[in-house]
User: Which sequence fits this backbone?
């Protein structure tokens, strides 16, 4: 069990804002995956597809000599 003093951290506003931004990005990507070529129908499928894409990206990076703005597009399937 985690116990804390009950004080509000000074960075709570930033934490909430960043969490909200992260949630927006995640939901947008899930919606796009359900509407586009993949036609996913569950969160489980969305996360499995994300895992597959990330593993493919890791394999791609192992072959590359340097990380660049161009090869980040590979992660999003735009390259």
Assistant:
């Amino acid at each position: 069990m985690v116990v804390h003093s009950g004080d509000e951290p000074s960075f709570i506003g930033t934490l909430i804002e960043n969490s909200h931004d992260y949630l927006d990005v995640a939901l947008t990507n899930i919606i796009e995956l359900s509407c586009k070529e993949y036609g996913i129908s569950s969160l489980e499928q969305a996360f499995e597809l994300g895992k597959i894409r990330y593993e493919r990206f890791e394999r791609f990076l192992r072959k590359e000599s340097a990380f660049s703005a161009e090869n980040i597009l590979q992660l999003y399937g735009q390259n």
